[in-house]
Each structure stands twice: as C-alpha cells, then as structure tokens.
Amino acid sequence: MINVIRARIHQKHRTIRFPDAPPPALPDRFRGRPLVDTARCPSGCRACAEACPTTAITFANDRLPVIDLGKCLFCNDCKLACPQDAIHHSDDYRLAVRQPGQLVLEPDEALVLAEALGGKMKRLLGRSLKLRQVSAGGCNACEADINVLGTVAWDLGRFGIQFVASPRHADGLLITGPVTQNMKSALLDTYAAVAEPKIVIAVGACAISGGPFVDHPETGNGADSVLPVDLYIPGCPPHPLTILDGLLRLLGRVDDHKTAMEKETRK
Prior knowledge:
With 267 residues, the chain is an alpha/beta fold. The chain has 2 domains: 59 residues, Alpha-Beta Plaits (2-Layer Sandwich); 139 residues, 3-Layer(aba) Sandwich (Rossmann fold). Helix content is 28%, strand content 15%. The protein contains 9 helices and 10 strands. Helix 5 links the parallel strand 6 and strand 7. The longest helix has 13 residues. The chain is globular. It starts with a helix and ends with a helix.
C-alpha cells in the first residue's frame, strides 16, 4: 500500500486540463492538418495527387492543390512526392466539422470547425451524452484511440460523455470503419434501436469517405452513405485529442477565444 501511495505522489495529477488550458505538447511525429505553401508549389506539377492513395488531392484552376481531409490518410506520401517540399503537416489537431463539404479545402482556406448542436438537442445532450460505438469494418486503429479517451489521462466521463453497451441506453452512435456489407444491416439495426432524437458521429477516414476502401464493392463509402451524420472527425486514425475536441465542440464546450487567451497568458 505504501508503494502505491508513493507511486501516486510521484505521478501527481495525470488528467489533462483540456479544454480549460492549452493542450499537452504533441510529439514531433504528430500529423495534423496538411498545409500547402502555394509560393513553392510548382506550376503544372501533379506529383502529390499522383502519390495520394485515396485521391484526396485534386487541383483548382489547374494549379492549386485542393485537399479533402475526409479522404486524407495523413500518410505523408504527398509530402515525400513533392519536389519542392511544398506540403507539410501542421500540429493543428482541430479537424472536426459538421458538413462533409467543409473538409474540402483550397490552400490557405480556413477550416470551418464544428458548431454546437442547436436548440433542443443541445439542451438534451449538452451535459450528458451516451454513445454506442459501432465498428463497421474498422481496422481497430480508430477504435483504439477512442478507447484511450477512457483512460486516466483523458477521463472522458468528466465531460458527461460515456460509451454504453446497449443502443437503447444511447443518445447516438459513434461509427468507425467504412461500413462493410457484412456490417451494414447490423449498423442499421443498431441505429433503429436508439431512441429519438439521436445523433451520429463518423470518426476516421473510413467512416467519412471509405478511406482506402473507397468504391470497393464490399464496402460503403462511409457512414453517411447509409445514415445521416451530425459530426465528421477526420484522421487515420484521428488523435484522441482530435476526437475529444470534436465531441466537445458538438456539445458547445470549447471556447477557442478563452483557450487562446490562456495560452498567451502562459507564455
């Protein structure tokens, strides 16, 4: 018992204070939103688009690359293929949006981050949200990072958000995976078992667009091919901080202005 107490004193408080304080430092290998330096982007070059395994990169006005974050695997192939090193991944973990079209961005275009649920839905779910997680053919990467949110470092329950075993106890679904044909009917049955009003959250490139399995005959192209989706959280897999940020934005629990002010105060 004494050793346990000593360990706790040594570890101190392990739960991050997010969103009331700046997030923890992310590792150098973290890949956030991809950015394009248009000044360095060579005219007529298509190397990044040709290297992309999911056609997440297209071109506007025959010159500027347009990146669909919903299709992006954050694999770094575009960066490695660019002869001028014009593409890089930022450390911006904030990626969740309410509409899939908001994930398609031209260079220097601002990402319209997810707005909170409105009216009755916010009153019902804003302080207590129960989700049934459905792996609709996922590889377990997104599922693993969702599980991380239940650990002591993240403590998802302190926000009133919990994952439940039965859809009849849930306020909505959190879906991972491209929705394979083998899981489609199970997903629809689970959705039908959730009482109205309900929400659907798509986590990861597979659940948003089909990911690397897009247009495969044995999969759907994401959750919104079969269900209405209220929140899209891109990534492959998205970092736990990205998932948490998206969930809290949906509930109206993130104040970017306050977070920025506290960050400046700490400098």
